[in-house]
Amino acid sequence: MSTLLDIKSSVLRQVQVCPSFRRRTEEEPGSASTDPQEAATEAWKPGDGVEFFAQMRLILKKGEGRQGLPCPEVLLRSGSPAPAEPVDPSRGLRALTQEEVEMLYEEALYTVLHRAGTMGPDQVDDQEALLSYLQQVFSTSPEEHAEAVEHVKKAKAPTYALKVSVMRAKNLLAKDPNGFSDPYCMLGILPASGAPREQGSHKEQRFSFRKGSKRGGPLPAKCIQVTEVKSSTLNPVWNEHFLFEIEDVSTDQLHLDIWDHDDDVSLVEACRKLNEVIGLKGMSRYFKQIVKSARANGTAGPTEDHTDDFLGCLNIPVREVPVAGEDSWFKLEPRSSASRVQGDCQLVLKLITTQRDTGMSQRGRSGFLSYLLLLSRLLQFEHRAEEPNSSSWRGELSAPAATVLCLHGAQSNLSVLQLAVLHWQVSSRHHQTRTLDYAYLLGLLEDMQAHWEEAASLPQEQEESLADSFSAFSEFGLRLLRQLRDYFPATNSTAVYRLELLLKCLGKLQLFQPAFEICPFETELNMDIAAALKRGNREWYDRLLNTKSPREQPGPQRLVGLVALADTVYEDLQSCYGIYASLFHSIVKVDFFTLTFRQLERLVAEEAWVLTEELSPKMTLEVASGLFELYLTLADIQRFWSSIPGRDSRSLALAGIHAPFLPAVKLWLQVLRDQTKWRLQGAVDVDTLEPMDASSKHSSSAATASLCFSHTQELWARLAWPDPAQAQVLGTQLGQDLCEAALFYTQLLRKKVDAQPGATGEAVSEPLCVVLNNVELLRKAAGQALRGLAWPERAAGLEGVLPRPLLSCTQALDEDLQQEAHTVTAHLTSKMVGDIRKYVQHISLSPDSIQNDEAVAPLMKYLDEKLALLNASLVKENLSRVLEALWELLLQVILQALGANRDVSADFYGRFHFTLEALVSVFHAEGQGLPLESLRDGSYKRLAEELRLHRCSTRECIEQYYLDKLKQKSLEQNRFGRLSVRCHYEAAEQRLVVEVLHAADLLPLDANGLSDPFVIVELGPPHFFPLVRSQRTQVKSRTLHPVYDELFYFSVPAEACRRRGACVLFTVMDHDWLSTNDFAGEAALGLGSIGGVARPQVGGSARAGQPITLHLRRPRAQVRSALRMLEGRANKEAQEFVKRLKELEKCMEADP
C-alpha cells in the first residue's frame, strides 16, 4: 500500500503557484504561521474540532427556520390560555354612595313589585325569587330586605301607559270600484264593559268620516285616535305611534278598527268613475255607489255618516302584552258573524310607566341612568360567580338578572338603541376592571350599530356618555397594543384570536366616528394605533437592549448579547409578518409589518455599526466568531425583507453593513479550515475502517467528512456575501480549503490502511473496500459542497454554470479522487492476480478430453465467491470500478496464456472461447453488472479476434489480414499523404485496369526534405490471384507531390475480384540508391466496389469515371494481430507470406 503514498495530487499541482495553499497542504493542522491573522487562530484550542462544529451546527439550525416567509401554522405553537390583561378598578364606573345604593335597591324592588304584562318563557315569573335575587345582589340582611320591600309596597303605584305603533296592514278587503280601498285605523282603550272611557268630564267623541273631517291629530290618551288615510291600497303602511294611559292593566283592552274611507260624491262624479271599474265585483260595487250617491243627493241629510266601509278590527287585552314588548302581526276580526273581513295588521306594543314613586325618580334621575347603574351592579355580581382569572366570560346573565333588567328597561321606556348603548357602556367599563371576552364586546358594538342605523339620534347627554365610553375603551385598547408582545404573543393562538377581536372592536369604534355630533377621537383611530405600535416597539426594544446588551458592558460581552438581541428581533419580525400584519392591515388598515420592520431594523443597524467600529481594532478569534454570527442574523433580516414581493433592501439601514464584518469573516473562515482538518484527523484516529451499520458501507470518518463539507456549503449559502468581487475571493479560498481538506483526508486514510497488518490469504480486504467506499462518498460530498459555493457574478451568466475558478477546482479535485479510487481499486484487485493466473493456467493445461465447463469450473467458483463478497462490501460505483479492473485483469491473463502456448490443438482455443463467453455472462449478471458494450470493447475485441484467428486456417488468416487493411481507417488523414487512382474492370478482356494518377503531401524521407517516391500495385490475398504479380510505377525524383498517370493491367477473373477480402493494395515507397527503400505509406481498395466487378458495364470496355482519393496509412495493431497468428504457423504458405511482410516491415523502421 506504500505505493499509494507516491500519488501526486493534481489539485495540489494546479495551485502550486499559491504559497499559502501549498504551505497549508505541507504543514500539519495547527502549525505556526507568519500571517498575523493566522496567529490569531492559534488562540482557538485545536482539540478535535468537535466543539467548533457543534457550535456551527447550532448556527445552521438557527438558519433552518429562516428559509422563506413564515407560515402562521408554524408560528402558532400553543393553544394555552392568553396572558392576563391589566385591570384597573379605577377605570370602572363611579362608585356609588350608600344613599345611592339604597335608592338603586329601591328602584329595583319597585320594578319587580309593579311588574305588568306577560312574562316570557325564559323569564322568571316568581316574584319572590326575583326579590330574593335582588337581596343577594345588594347584600342586604333579611330584616333590611323585608323593611325595604314593605317600604316599596307602601309607595304609590306607577302610572302605566301603552305605546302603540301601527306599522302596516296587508291583504285587506277591496271596497272601492277600482279594486282597492282607502284604509285608515281608529284605535283606543276599552274598559272591561266594552264602551270607550271618557277623559275626565269629556263626552265620547263621534267622528264624521266625510271629506274634510279632522282626523289623525294628536289627542289625549284614552281617547280614540285615528291614523292617516292611505289611498288606493290593500297593503297600507302607516308607521304611526300613539300613547294611551292605562287605568287598569288587568282589565283594559286595546281596540282597533280599520275602515275604508269614501268621500261624498255626486251621481255625476260616480258615473264618471265608470272607467275605474275592474271586474264583475267592481261593477257590483259601482252600482252600489251610484245608489248611495243618489240617496245622499236626494233624501239624505248633509251630516249623515254612512259612506265608510268596515275592513276589520282587533281586541287585545293589555295584560297579555309581553313584558319586553311585542312586534307581531294580528289577524283582523269581524264585528259580527255577518261581517266579511280579511287581512292582517302589524302592531308594536310596549307597556311602560310614566310616573314612578321612587327616590331616583323624585330626584330627577332618568330611567337611562337608573338602568345603567342597575346593569353595572348586576354585571359585577354575575361576573363574581365566574372563575377569578377567567377572561372568557361573555356577559351571560342569569334568568333573574335578565328578568329584572327587562322589566326595568320596559318600564323606563328605553328604546332598543338605548338598551344597546347602555350594555356597551357598562360592559366596556367593566372590562377594564375585570376582563371580558372580546367577542362579547364586539357583539354589543354590532348590535348597537344595527339599531343606530334604524333609530333616531340619542339625546346629547346620552351621546356624550357614549363618546366617553368610546374614548376610555380606545385608550385602554391602545395601551394593550403598546404591549402587544406581552399580552398577545404570536405563539399563542388564543391570545392572537383575542387580538383579532380587540382590533375588530376598535375598527367598529372607527365606523361610529362620522355618526357623532361630538367626536370622541381627536385624530383618526388608525393613526393613534400606528403611534401606539411605534411607541410599543421602541419600549420593547429598549427593554430588550438593556436586558441582553447593556451599553455599560465591555464590547465583547455586549457582542454576545447583541447576537441574542438580533435573533430575537428576527423572530419578532417573523411573528409580525406571519401573524400580526394581516390582522392589522385587514381590520384597522395599519401596515404593522412595514412600520415595525423599518423601526427595529434601523435600531439594530445603529447598534451594530457602533459596536463593529469599536471592536474592529481589537479583532480576536472570540470577537470574530461573535461578529460572524451577528452578521449572519443581520443578513437574514435583509433577506427577509427582500423575499417579500415589491420590497427593495437597498433602502434599508442595514444596506452595506457587510463591509465592517469582512475582516471577521475572513478570520473565521481560516479557523474553519483548520478546525475541519482537526475534525477529520480526530475522526480518522478513532475510525476502525468498518462499516458504520448494516445499511451503510462506509466508515464513521467518511460520514464525519461528508457532514463537515455539507455544513461548510450550508454556511456559505447563509453567508451569501453581497459584494461579488469579495464573494469571489472568499469563495475561491473556501473552495481551495475544501479541496485541501478532502485530499488531507485521503492521505490520512492511506496512512491508516498502511498501518494495519494485512490478513494472510485474504484476497478481498474489507478495510480496502471501506476505504474505497469512503473515497467515493467523499468525492460526492466534496463535489456537491463545491458546486454549492457559487457566488453572484457581476454579469449575469448562465444559470447553473459554476464560476471558472470554482469549476477548475471542482474538476481537479474530482480527477484526483477518481485517480485515488482507481489506485485503491488496483491495489484491491492486485491481491487476486495470483489466484486468477492459477485458475487460467488450470484451463490451459486441462486435457482436451474433459468438458469445457468442467475446465472452467474452478475459476467460476472462485469468481462467484469473490464477487459476492465485493457486492456485499462495495457501493454500486465502486463495485463497477472493481468489476472493470477485474475484467481487464482477466483478459490480460488469458491473452498472456494464449501467447505462451503455440502449436496447440483447436480444442485449446475452443476452451478459452467458452471461458470468455462464460466470463461475459458472469460480469454482465443479467443487467445487474457491467453493460455488454463495455465488456465487449477494448481488450475483449483483441482477445476474441485472436481466439477466432487461432481457430482459422492459414488462408483464412491471410484473408483476415487483408480484411483488416480494408477496415483500417487513417486516424491522421493528412500525415502520410494522399494517393489518387482510378480503377475499373473490363469484362470482355477479363482484366482489371488500375490507373495511378498522382500523390500529394507525402512524407519527406530524404535528407533534402523530399522523397523519390514510387508506387507498388498488387492484388491480394495472394491465393485469390496466384498467377498475378505485383507491378510498380516509375520513380519520381525529389518531390512530395508526384504525378504518375500510369496504367496497369491485371488479367483476373471477375469471380476472384468478387470474393470477400479481395483488394488492390497500393504501397508508396521512397527509392534509395545506396540503401533499402523506405516505406512511405499504403492504402487498400476493395475490388468488390470497383465498376464492372459487381455488375458488367454497358459497352464492355467503358472506363471508370471519377478518380478515387485514398489516404495513406501505416498498419495498425489490429492488422498485425493476423500477422502474429501466421508467425506461429509452421506451414510453407504462412512462412512465405510472413517473410514477405517482414521485409516490408524493415522498410518501416525509419518511420519518422
Using the alpha-carbon principal axes, give the shape: elongated
Please estimate the helix content. 40-55%
The mean pLDDT is 81
CA-based gyration radius: 57 Å
Count the DSSP helices.
37
Low-confidence runs of at least 5 consecutive residues? 1-44, 194-222, 294-306, 794-798
Biggest sheet strand line-up: 4-1-8-7
Q: Biggest β-sheet: count, sense, barrel? A: 4 strands, antiparallel
First and last CA, distance: 41 Å
Number of DSSP-assigned strands: 16
Q: What portion of residues belong to β-strands?
A: 5-15%
Secondary-structure-based class equals alpha+beta
What's the topology here?
Layout: H1 10-14, H2 19-26, H3 36-41, H4 50-64, H5 72-75, H6 98-113, H7 127-138, H8 142-154, E1 159-170, E2 183-190, E3 225-226, E4 237-246, E5 253-260, H9 267-272, H10 279-298, E6 309-317, E7 326-331, E8 344-355, H11 359-362, H12 367-384, H13 399-411, H14 416-431, H15 438-454, H16 460-482, H17 484-487, H18 493-512, H19 525-548, H20 555-588, H21 592-615, H22 621-642, H23 662-685, H24 700-719, H25 724-755, H26 766-787, H27 804-830, H28 833-845, H29 852-873, H30 876-900, H31 906-924, H32 932-935, H33 939-950, H34 954-967, E9 978-986, E10 991-1000, E11 1013-1020, E12 1031-1032, E13 1043-1051, H35 1054-1057, E14 1063-1070, E15 1078-1086, E16 1108-1111, H36 1117-1127, H37 1132-1148
Antiparallel strand pairs: 1-4, 1-8, 2-3, 2-5, 5-6, 7-8, 9-10, 9-16, 10-13, 11-12, 11-14, 14-15
Helix pairs in contact: 4-24, 6-7, 6-8, 7-13, 12-13, 12-14, 14-15, 14-16, 15-18, 16-18, 16-19, 18-20, 19-20, 19-21, 20-21, 20-22, 21-22, 22-23, 23-24, 23-25, 24-26, 25-26, 25-27, 26-27, 27-30, 28-29, 28-30, 29-31, 30-31, 30-33, 31-33, 33-36, 34-36
